[in-house]
Design a protein that fits this description.
This protein is an alpha+beta fold and 372 residues long. The protein has 2 domains: 2-116, Beta Barrel (Lipocalin), CATH 2.40.128.120; 140-365, no CATH class. The protein has helices spanning 2-23, 171-179, 212-226, 280-291, 339-347, and strands spanning 26-34, 37-48, 51-58, 66-73, 76-81, 86-92, 98-105, 108-116, 140-147, 156-160, 163-170, 186-187, 197-204, 230-245, 253-254, 264-265, 272-278, 296-298, 306-311, 349-365. The strands form 4 sheets. It has an 8-stranded antiparallel β-barrel with strand order 1-2-3-4-5-6-7-8. The relative contact order is 0.13. Mean pLDDT is 86; it is low at 4-19.
């Protein structure tokens, strides 16, 4: 008689667990408020074979989804976004219509309440942009160039739909981006190439969103036409950092979702770099143009694209490429490690200091552009 009773109890508990999991499936939406800005976010949760799966969308920024791993325990839902070092944790309401909790990312936390989306109130998730045709001309149909706000801090290269935007960028920044080089690989540029800053807003001639190769080609053409840039190439032996695989192997999440799409490497603060859909060559490029003072080359031999977040405490020698000054150390015992340690511990990679022959661009001619 005892054995059947135990089976009944087990079946009741299992049934209750499944119901609770089903209570969190669907779309949940809320507004993140931080730093004076508001961003609408949507989480979608499904149950496949008893396993919860999730996706995250920042719908005011893009239609790109980021994997979210849901866990549910005693009415508390936790969603982990490893790619951007973010988490949401909240308590499901008794009627399963809201989740009141906290969003955490990069060492900071803000309140976030999610409500269940219905047919009447659901926010539309933008469709990912259609890629530009592979044979489309890599030129701007129209592009404006204006002097930057002299009080602006940092710099930005981004693509919004078809719009290509740069903010607070020097000629040196544009050359470095267009030709995938570091500042030390540019020689003979006029003095103003590192002091005068420009904002660029361009729309490609072709339809759809350009990939990285097309984007670089458009900036190259802009430099030729508007800055009258002429240069020749040479080889020079320079100090470099080589990225290699550490002794324990790489600790990277592969992203095979969009092999031709643009990578996302946008700092969320000094020493907080979420990376999505990027090659290690893309990571090396960001390190050399924004963070470090010498060229960075990828010698890992790792192919494909990856998602990861690198968090470290920068020192005063870093981020000169962004035109910002790193504040002195806070003395916080819980602060992240320095860059070189963080790369080993978090990514399973290493920066090796060495010398290597690298390509140098020698500037023969450059002019300040007209605004239009």
């Amino acid at each position: 008689m005892n054995r059947p009773r135990r089976w009944i109890v087990a079946l009741v508990l299992l049934s209750a667990s499944v119901v609770r999991a089903q209570d969190v499936t669907g779309a949940w939406q809320g507004t993140l408020e931080a730093g004076g800005s508001k961003l609408r976010v949507v989480f979608t949760i499904t149950a496949e074979g008893g396993t919860l799966r999730g996706a995250f969308y920042s719908i005011d920024q893009s239609g790109q989804s980021i994997a979210a791993t849901p866990t549910l325990q005693s009415g508390t839902l936790r969603l982990t976004l490893a790619a951007i070092n973010g988490t949401f944790e909240g308590r499901l309401s008794a009627d399963s219509t809201s989740i009141i909790g906290v969003w955490s990312q990069g060492g900071g936390s803000v309140p976030l309440t999610l409500t269940r989306a219905t047919r009447d109130n659901a926010w539309a998730i933008p469709a990912p942009p259609t890629p530009m045709a592979a044979d489309a001309p890599a030129v701007f149909e129209v592009a404006t160039i204006k002097p930057s706000n002299p009080d602006a801090q940092g710099k930005l290269f981004t693509v919004k739909g078809r719009q290509v935007i740069t903010l607070n960028t020097t000629l040196g920044d544009l050359i470095a981006f267009a030709y995938d080089v570091q500042a030390r690989q540019i020689e003979g540029a006029p003095a103003w190439a590192e002091t005068e800053k420009f904002d660029i807003n361009g729309q490609p001639q072709g339809q759809g969103q350009p990939n990285q190769r097309q984007l670089r080609g458009m900036i190259q053409k802009l430099l030729e036409d508007r800055f009258k840039l002429v240069f020749h190439r040479a080889k020079k032996d320079l100090p470099v950092y080589a990225i290699v695989v550490g002794a324990g192997g790489p600790k990277l999440a592969r992203n095979d979702a969009n092999p031709d799409g643009l990578p996302s490497l946008l700092f969320r603060g000094l020493g907080n770099l979420p990376v999505v859909n990027a090659r290690l060559a893309d990571f090396a490029n960001v390190m050399q143009t924004a963070v470090l003072d010498r060229p960075v080359i990828d010698r890992t031999g790792l192919q494909g694209r990856y998602d990861f977040t690198l968090t470290w405490t920068p020192d005063e020698s870093q981020f000169r490429g962004l035109g910002v000054r790193v504040p002195p150390p806070s003395g916080d015992a819980n602060a992240p490690p320095g860059l070189f340690t963080a790369v080993q511990e978090q990514l399973g990679l290493k920066f090796e200091s060495t010398n290597a022959p690298v390509e140098v661009l020698v500037i023969d001619r450059a002019e300040k552009p007209s605004e239009n």
